[in-house]
């Protein structure tokens, strides 16, 4: 079965390919903070930092660092998944190689007890980098209902 989706690019273009993506999850052992608006950011005078993937069963917004990775190479990113029932879920997505890179870095810096552990509340680890691979994982989490176990539910600010 072929899945079609639309990527909305930070610079306004649409299409199946793009050149923007980013790592935003904690790189130095810090934990991203989830506000009550869960990813709804007011960015005065800046470009929208999201790459949005729209599919029939969900909309995924990948939070970008516009100066870093591409959609094909992103290995560490926060994502927000909106479902048709109105619920929204936050995920921090890493690749296996990114987890390895962070642990190696932390072993040198002494963070996380000299890299003796790795964790994130809402972590999802995927085998390959890129928005496409991450979307594949999200699609399965939504299909199976596991999005409710893996993600952190975002509260409606209303």
Q: Could you explain the architecture of this structure?
A:
The protein is α+β, with helices and mostly antiparallel strands and 158 residues long. The chain has a domain at 6-18 and 41-94 and 122-154. Helices cover 23% and strands 25% of the residues. It has helices at 96-109, 111-115, 131-144, 147-150, and strands at residues 6-8, 14-15, 50-55, 58-63, 76-82, 88-95, 123-126, 152-154. Strands 1, 2, 3, 4, 5, 6, 7 and 8 form an eight-stranded mixed sheet that branches. The chain is globular, with a radius of gyration of 15 Å. The termini are far apart. Residues 1-43 have low confidence and may be disordered.
Features:
25% strand; 8-stranded mixed sheet; disordered N terminus; 8 strands; globular; 158 residues; alpha+beta
Distance between the termini: 38 Å
Form type: globular
Strand content: 15-25%
Oligomer: single chain
Radius of gyration: 15 Å
Low-confidence stretches: 1-43
The helix content is 10-25%
Q: Give, in order, the helices and strands.
A: EEEEEEHHEHHE
How many distinct beta strands?
8
Counted by DSSP, the helix tally is 4
Largest sheet: 8 strands, mixed
Mean pLDDT metric: 77
* Class by alpha and beta content: alpha+beta
């Amino acid at each position: 079965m072929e899945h079609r989706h639309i990527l909305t690019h930070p610079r306004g273009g649409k299409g199946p390919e793009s050149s923007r993506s980013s790592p935003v999850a904690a790189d130095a052992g810090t934990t991203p903070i989830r506000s009550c608006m869960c990813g709804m950011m007011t960015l005065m005078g800046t470009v929208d930092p999201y790459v949005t993937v729209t599919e029939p069963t969900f909309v995924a917004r990948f939070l970008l660092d516009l100066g870093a990775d591409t959609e094909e190479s992103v290995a560490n990113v926060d994502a927000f998944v909106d479902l048709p029932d109105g619920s929204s879920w936050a995920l921090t997505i890493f690749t296996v190689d990114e987890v390895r890179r962070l642990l190696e870095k932390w072993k040198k810096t002494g963070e996380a007890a000299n890299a003796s552990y790795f964790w994130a509340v809402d972590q999802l680890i995927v085998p390959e980098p890129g928005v496409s691979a991450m979307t594949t994982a999200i699609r399965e989490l939504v299909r199976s209902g596991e999005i409710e176990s893996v993600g952190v539910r975002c509260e409606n600010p209303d």
